[in-house]
Design a protein that fits this description.
single chain; alpha/beta; Rossmann fold; TATA-Binding Protein; 2 domains; 8-stranded mixed beta sheet; 33% helix; 20% strand
Length: 342
């Protein structure tokens, strides 16, 4: 038995997948937006299951609060301040070196969404905010790419498969975006690790079923909800809205950039993220030399880190910066202008 046959033997003998289904998986490409709790679990299942290419996108780096539920990360990743996408890629390559894993330590935004999703067969939502999910929804319906929405908070979770072609979309379910600060987050309500694993397992199962050629209409538009503490399971059907601005009218506000923020506080810790005015590349090494007088500077291939007495600035190669130790967005933007430029 060859290494590949032995690796995927349990799929080969599984009637629902078989060798033909495994072959289809090996030619599939999946984009995972977010490498946190849902993203690390989903990526683990899909990488070990033999998905041909995984694209991992995440804006953040590993911190101590992640280790409670985000598999694939270690204490060393926290101490090194490793970007999540790069840390997860390194972890997954140790589990399956036979597939292609592309790590993008960047933010999924309107100006790079189509590039990051180029040629993918499926998108898995593992993000932590509504604007990103609405952006994925726009992208899905514009490019006819199916995607799987998911979320977990406290002990509860939910998952929803959306085809990008027929049936309802996320706007049909959620309507207009809720006002900022009105929804619970992990840092205000907490989250149970096994609840995350249960939701991501549903997402991964949906993905594998869809990619092996099984008819996704069986679960398209069906919202699965669970409570991992009470052991409750509920299912409901989401209906298409004939007046929906996305799937009915073809209006893609978030993909057009109307939902972009200049800066925002990051969920779960004392940090502010600042977005560049334009998504241009930057010479990190040249900037590192200029910042040597401002504090301790570490320069890596995809990011730069400046450590001062008052804050830590991590600047990525897409010019996006995260300021740890700050909660004042205006101060973060001011420091960005001082050290990086407008």
């Amino acid at each position: 038995m060859s290494g590949t046959e032995e690796r995927y033997n349990r799929h080969h003998i599984l009637e629902a997948i078989g060798k033909d289904g495994q072959k289809r998986l090996s030619h599939s490409k999946v984009l995972i937006v977010g490498c946190g709790a849902l993203g690390t679990h989903s990526a683990e299942y899909l990488a070990r299951g033999g998905i041909g290419e995984l694209r991992l996108v995440d804006r953040d780096f590993v911190d101590w609060s992640n280790l409670q539920r985000q598999i694939g990360f270690t204490e060393e990743d926290v101490r090194n301040g490793t970007p999540k996408a790069l840390a997860l890629k390194k972890h997954l390559e140790k589990a399956n070196s036979a597939i292609t894993i592309v790590a993008e330590p960047t933010e999924f935004q309107f100006f790079n969404a189509e590039k990051l999703a180029r040629d993918v067969d499926l998108i898995i939502d593992a993000s932590d905010n509504i604007p990103t999910r609405f952006l994925i929804n726009d992208l899905s319906w514009k490019l006819s790419i199916p995607w799987i929405y998911g979320g977990a908070i406290e002990t509860r979770g939910h998952a929803l498969f959306l085809s990008g072609r027929d049936g309802p979309c996320l706007r049909c379910y959620m309507g207009e975006p809720p006002p900022p600060g009105t929804l619970q987050t992990c840092d205000t309500a907490g989250v149970l690790g096994p609840a995350v694993a249960m939701v991501s397992s549903i997402q991964a199962s949906m993905a594998i079923r869809s990619l092996t050629g099984e008819d996704p209409d069986l679960f398209c538009g069906r919202l699965f909800r669970l409570d991992a503490w009470k052991m409750d399971w509920k299912e409901s059907r989401i209906e298409s809205d004939p007046e929906c601005r996305v799937c009915s009218r073809g209006s893609f506000d978030f993909l057009d950039g109307k939902g972009q923020l200049n800066s925002e506080s990051l969920c779960g810790r004392e940090a502010v993220q600042v977005h560049p005015r334009t998504p241009n590349d930057i010479d990190l090494q040249a900037l590192a030399r200029r910042l040597e007088s401002a504090g301790k500077v570490e320069c890596h291939p995809r990011y730069l880190r400046l450590t001062t007495e008052d804050f830590v600035m991590t600047l990525f190669d897409d010019q996006r910066a995260i300021f740890d130790g700050l909660t004042d967005a205006s101060k973060a933007r001011s420091l960005y202008s001082r050290y990086v430029g407008d």
